[in-house]
């Protein structure tokens, strides 16, 4: 009963508002009807000034109100197109200078689920050691799969290595998940890279410099400052690195390196197979 009464009142209110809107619109139209021709003439003259040098768009005689109205509408479309073009050009230039900022704003959250599960397990969740180990390994495997996807490589065309400091922080240890190939060359590349201050190093000509190796290219990333965590890839396919996939690899590893400050994660890396 109350619901029907409320619905009835709502209908009455909307009906009254509709009638008022029609009355106000009619009054406004009647007031402007006499002024509209003069208003169009003034607007026409003002809009025509920027392009008056184009004789083919010469304004019609003022007494031709219909032609003036058509000219105003045409000029409105023309100016709108010019403004839209200018806005597009400005946005295009800004995006170039900002380095494809739209792409960065839509940053892909790599391995988000796997990373969340690993951090939750390591952060005193009370889970068993088996679950903690499984979640950490799952994240690391997902991370390595992302790397293979970025470079478009098959599993046997790339090897991944996790690097952490030793207990005395003066040297480093290397661990891996799946396969160990030509580690003598990898060790040489790591020793050279760890002595450099650069946190990102890419070697595109490994096979040309080091004899008797199948490694074509090599890349390593490590955190700034005191060494806490590093990640390296040995690539067995030539001409793999491009500016595009190296930029993608940089974005992928930027946040991963912060895990070096999570001591429990670093300790978990040390439970993997150690490269010797």
Separation, N- and C-terminal Cα atoms: 84 Å
The secondary structure category is alpha+beta
Give the strand line-up of the largest sheet: 3-4-5-1-2-6
Low confidence ranges? 99-108
Summarize the biggest pleated sheet.
6 strands, antiparallel
Number of helices: 10
Number of strands: 6
Residues in helix, %: 55-70%
Q: What fraction of the residues are assigned to beta strands by DSSP?
A: 5-15%
- Radius of gyration, in Å, reads 34 Å
Global shape: elongated
Could you give the order of the helices and strands? HHHHHHEEHEHEEHHE
Look at the structure and give the mean pLDDT. Answer: 75
Spell out the key features of this protein.
56% helix, 276 residues, 6 strands, six-stranded antiparallel sheet
Question: Could you outline the blueprint of secondary structure elements for this entry?
Answer:
Blueprint: H1 2-33, H2 36-48, H3 65-97, H4 101-105, H5 112-122, H6 129-151, E1 158-165, E2 172-176, H7 183-194, E3 200-203, H8 206-209, E4 217-222, E5 230-235, H9 243-256, H10 263-269, E6 273-274
Antiparallel strand pairs: 1-2, 1-5, 2-6, 3-4, 4-5
Helix pairs in contact: 2-3, 5-6, 6-9
